[in-house]
Design goal:
alpha/beta, TIM Barrel, eight-stranded parallel beta sheet, globular, binds hypoxanthine, binds zinc ion
Length: 349
């Protein structure tokens, strides 16, 4: 066990920023800032339902997941060309580098784009080129996870997976996102079985707004390796015990949960309880352009609201690295860096 020394309260935020960490739950379309949306709308000749950036930002007052998704899909309508996908991901990587993200696993929603006539090649090749440049220019290891939209039929997901296969080498896994309630994981068991047979990693959103039964279904029917969100697990003791026993990672997104009214206030968030119970929780940004903060903002605000300490910081960063789909060698390297970072902070105290 690595011994974490206490860190002075006034230095905790600096530690949170400096520590190497992985981001495992980021929808790249949710990193599209209004400024970039307007720039792309202009260069692509796309009409937006907002007069300007300020009017768009003013509309970011959500009541639940669906109220956000409606705007999120509207924002994504400006993405047409390979360069647009590259520029979107590159803007995210620059923010991630500032937050000392060493590993990023990016969700993308091909159906949102192919349904508008955008070629699969433009989507995947633009994002993939940005991932390669993130490694060479920013030293961020980055990979893509293709998400299926659960409000559409499984047949669409199967066709999407098929259409993406020429680029099989460009993504490492599949996920499941969009409107949760009424669209349970088991509806997608065939497409997930196919993805697993192809050697892809599998994850799914479950228990963001939906019941614990959806988390069970994602685990048992889809055989996912991680649960995205999963905060509703707290209402099912047997599920909590299962998550602890199997150390199934949860990619929790505190500011997202706050903005989508999953919790009334950040101080009501159950991340601290989950951590205490021994669940493998991680902190992530989800859709940072819409929810008011990138990864470090999520750490800083959650730590302040829940009064978490350096021990929790170490655990959360270590969980993020260990729960990633990076190689064992990469994980070993980042864990070493993480320990060095904490030692540096304790020596300065
Ligand atoms: N939940 C479901 N679908 C999504 C989300 C989310 O938080 N963000 C983008 N698509
Ligand atoms: Zn999400």
């Amino acid at each position: 066990m690595f011994k974490v020394h206490a860190v002075a309260p006034n230095r905790l935020n600096a530690l949170l920023k400096a520590m190497p960490k992985a981001e495992l739950h980021i929808h790249i379309e949710g990193s599209l800032e209004p400024e970039l949306i307007f720039k792309m709308a202009e260069r692509n000749g796309v009409q937006l339902p907002f007069a300007d950036v300020a009017a768009m930002r003013a509309a970011y007052a959500f009541t639940d997941l669906q109220s956000f998704l409606d705007l999120y899909y509207a924002g994504a309508s400006v993405l047409l060309h390979e360069q647009d996908f590259y520029d979107m991901a590159w803007a995210y990587f620059e923010k991630a580098a500032a937050d000392h993200v060493v590993r990023a696993e990016l969700f993308f929603d091909p159906q949102t784009h192919t349904a508008r006539g955008v070629p699969m090649a433009a989507v995947i090749e633009g994002l993939s080129r940005a991932c390669r440049d993130a490694q060479t220019a920013l030293n961020i290891s980055a990979d893509l996870i293709l998400c299926f939209l659960r409000h559409l039929p499984e047949a669409d997901a199967l066709a999407t997976l098929e259409a993406a296969l020429p680029w099989r080498a460009h993504f490492i896994g599949v996920g499941l996102d969009s409107s949760e309630v009424g669209n349970p994981p088991e509806n997608f068991s065939r497409v997930f079985a196919k993805a697993r047979a192809l050697g892809l990693h599998v994850v799914a959103h479950a228990g963001e707004e939906g019941p614990p039964a959806y988390i069970w279904s994602a685990l048992q029917e889809l055989q996912v390796e991680r649960i995205d969100h999963g905060v509703q697990a707290i209402h099912d003791a047997a599920l909590m015990a299962h998550l602890v026993k199997h150390q199934t990672p949860l990619t929790v997104c505190p500011l997202s949960n706050l903005k989508l009214c999953v919790f009334k206030q950040l101080s009501d968030h159950n991340l601290g309880q989950m951590l205490e119970a021994g669940v493998c929780v991680t902190i992530n940004s989800d859709d940072p352009a819409y929810f008011g903060g990138y990864l470090n903002d999520n750490y800083v605000q959650t730590f302040a609201a829940l009064h978490l300490d350096a021990q929790s910081a170490y655990k959360l960063a270590a969980n993020s690295i260990e729960a990633s789909f990076a190689t064992l060698e990469q994980k070993h390297h980042w864990m070493h860096q993480l320990k060095q970072c904490f030692q540096g902070f304790s020596e300065q105290d």
